[in-house]
């Protein structure tokens, strides 16, 4: 009962109609892949589907609920999904539970066939656990025209950003700044960026005890509070997509956004500010500090309990992540493969990373700390309680969660 | 009806529920009483991640790594913890701290408001507060609006009815994920409703900016979404009102109100009870508007906590505990209806 | 009434209006009453994304769920309305407790079992699950409708020599149309509108329209994709419009049938 229609052929249809790459996959069976839902992943899913032929079925499921589905499938006796797309954050629990299949043997076997480059390999110790294809980081988006008009320089620190916001507000722009405070996960992500840049950390690596009840942590949280003054009062209900629309509609003058979204600012079908948006590295929390951002990779993993054939699955993945995919879709995202040509839209990502933004921490404690922070720090931003109190609440929630997962003894 | 034919008639339905709800429910209870995780040990580990253009970055730190068994699978720890998960989920500890904490009592009112503030600072209890608020805030309106619409449409001319029925049930027929988005978009800044209010000269108004307005919007959404449900059931129920007593009442000179009060409503009673039961249950599990309005800081719900625990903490045991709390909550809310049904069923001729 | 009609339709009218726009006009602030008209969103969803394929899945799942849950629900609802014993009460209570289960949690219980049995991502599995989840509501509602039908009717039929089954089928069901149609409407809506279960129990190609739509609209990155979702959401209401008009006639004809016999 397998149909061979494409879940979402959008990206593919947008391509110039060059001949499809020849799929060299050997073997047969069924390959099921699950992933999140965004443009680059759609594109890769469609490229995977090129491999479908007699005896080989490829289905790619793109869903916003990918995270819990992946986790529960990989934890079951056998997983209907033979591979999943993950990122820094979502790989950690899977890896810490020993559910991922090390890929060393397959990488060795197919290194030449698919031209697997060393920088695509995500290693935990000696084990290759994932094949990465793109990197991403949040950075600063601003209205070039407004900054010029009001004689503002691109802010290097959050103090400068707040000063710019003040100037813009005084000049009649009601809500100069926008950020995704309305989604717990995204809010916590904004916070983690600031916390790490400010020299804080999420937990003590030796004991797994929470470490975000420090002066650095309070200071970082206070920055979010100060930013809220310059945001729409509705911001506690705006998620990342909402902020992006605000920016595209010209309602706000600056925001921290994911780097891979830059080209959409210049798409006249979506945006009223074509050509007016500038991109810069994320500001630092203090003079000379690293940009307050973390960098992320996206890649594919194969579980130990897959019900299909790991070899065929691996080939299908590598076909989709081939150099040809990158060459044909160079502008879609910041590809890791070396044949990628940087564009004006990815410079700010590279500058953010080269400026010292750390990778988003890959360990299970961070995931838990992230989710406990998300549910608690909004109490401070909305003025319900003090910064210290909301961080203390988050620490308590983190402890409970870490105990339940066996990461914290007592 | 004889017991044997009763059992025969209900068998298919009961079997389906036993297999697909009762058995999973038992599994959920089992999960809720246990804790499970993969055993880990702290290991010094170098992780390597890509940058771009051939660059890589290495990070070395102590990371929990899984303890593997001989098959290369993680060693799973299963622990019986009794009611621990439920106690954790209900945040009994936090509640206890607040209740036993010393405080200065100046006035009863101050004391109550202070207590309320502290209790609603605890996630579970604040979620419960809004869940109950939503449940009780929507139920009466849903019943009233539903009945009003049913009576109104019932009186309309036959030609108009089809359209009226369709228009009235619109809010219900679109999946809540979509309909809550459709409503949410209207309330954003610079969106239709805000612009309308501004154009009418009332100034800028931010609906999603504070607790009161956002809760009002969500409750209004709840009424909007559920009233059609009451309407369509009551409308169908009106079609089965026996004509004789109505006509008799008219001959006796009963007013429209009296006919409604003494003939129609008693006839609709079983349906009203069903609507209440179902709506209270659905309201108690309110989820989509909380997710879409993204407003968990102002209005949280028990169901949202369950989802969050499952999706972001990936803790099936605690999520199971929330599920059990949900079931308990629903049962408590429904006790009056249950008593009524019991009497109903017991006092049958 | 007029206020209700306005309030009930407005969000959808607005959605209908913006579904024919480019994203930039659809989410313009302040909103535009008039904007360039385009069919792109619909074209994309139906032609390029092959949405009709999900429509086939939806049709299969919805039709089967409705048929099965009405059949077994009518039997149980009727029995509950006519049976005097305590067992009936306890069954109703159990059904209520069952209905209180959050679906996300039920899913965690289903998944390992379905994987193990190899029945994950099959129409039959989704149908049976939706039927079971829908049963508590269906039997409660049908019981209430059956209670509105005088007992004398089926008892008279039984005196005339019908069996219990014969009385149910020949005498009771024919006057139950308003109830059955209403319950059918809800079964239909449940199956048609279910997002979380249909999305998670099915693989990518096997999913239903609503589940696919939920994913379009739940993703946060692409505004263009969101517009496709809006166009999809508008399209999925069209079959409902047609069905509701059809149903509505049945409710009215049920009225006359009931009046003649009751």
Q: Could you please describe the fold and organization of this structure?
A:
The complex is a heterotrimer of chains A (410), B (349) and C (262). The termini of chain A are far apart. Chain A has 16 helices and 10 strands. Chain A is α/β, with parallel strands linked by helices. In chain A, helix 2 links the parallel strand 1 (29-35) and strand 2 (56-62). Among the domains of chain B are: 84-113, no CATH class; 128-297, Orthogonal Bundle (MetI-like fold), CATH 1.10.3720. Chain B is 69% helix and 9% strand. Chain B has 14 helices and 4 strands. Chain B has helices at residues 3-32, 84-89, 92-100, 108-119, 123-155, 158-173, 176-187, 192-199, 211-239, 243-251, 256-284, 288-293, 302-312, 316-346; strands at residues 34-38, 40-50, 56-66, 76-80. In chain B, helix 5 (123-155) packs parallel to helix 9. The mean pLDDT of chain B is 86. Helices cover 80% and strands 0% of the residues of chain C. Chain C is built from 13 helices and no strands. At the A-C interface, strand 2, helix 3 and helix 10 of A face helix 6, helix 11, helix 12 and helix 13 of C. Strand 4 (121-124) of chain A pairs antiparallel with strand 2 of chain B, so a sheet runs across the interface.
Global geometry of chain A: globular
Q: Enter the CATH topology name of the domain at 128-297 in chain B.
A: MetI-like fold
How would you classify the helix and strand content of chain A by structural class?
alpha/beta
Note the overall shape of chain B. Answer: globular
Distance between the termini of chain A: 50 Å
- Look at the structure and give the CATH class of the domain at 128-297 in chain B: Mainly Alpha
List the defining traits of the structure above.
A: 410 residues, alpha/beta, ten-stranded mixed beta sheet, 15% strand, globular, B: 349 residues, two-stranded antiparallel ribbon, two-stranded antiparallel sheet
Task: Briefly summarize what is shown.
The complex is a heterotrimer of chains A (410), B (349) and C (262). Chain A is of the alpha/beta class and 410 residues long.
Give the topology, please.
The complex is a heterotrimer of chains A (410), B (349) and C (262).
Chain A: H1 10-14, E1 29-35, H2 39-49, E2 56-62, H3 66-75, E3 83-87, H4 88-96, H5 104-110, E4 121-124, E5 127-143, H6 144-149, H7 158-170, E6 177-178, H8 184-197, H9 215-228, H10 240-248, E7 254-258, E8 277-280, E9 295-301, H11 310-320, H12 323-328, E10 334-335, H13 347-354, H14 364-376, H15 378-381, H16 387-404
Parallel strand pairs in A: 1-2, 1-3, 6-7
Antiparallel strand pairs in A: 3-9, 4-5, 5-7, 5-8, 5-9, 5-10
Chain B: H1 3-32, E1 34-38, E2 40-50, E3 56-66, E4 76-80, H2 84-89, H3 92-100, H4 108-119, H5 123-155, H6 158-173, H7 176-187, H8 192-199, H9 211-239, H10 243-251, H11 256-284, H12 288-293, H13 302-312, H14 316-346
Antiparallel strand pairs in B: 1-4, 2-3
Helix pairs in contact in B: 1-14, 5-9, 5-11, 6-9, 9-11, 11-14, 13-14
Chain C: H1 2-18, H2 23-26, H3 40-48, H4 51-82, H5 86-99, H6 103-117, H7 123-147, H8 151-159, H9 164-175, H10 177-193, H11 196-201, H12 209-218, H13 223-261
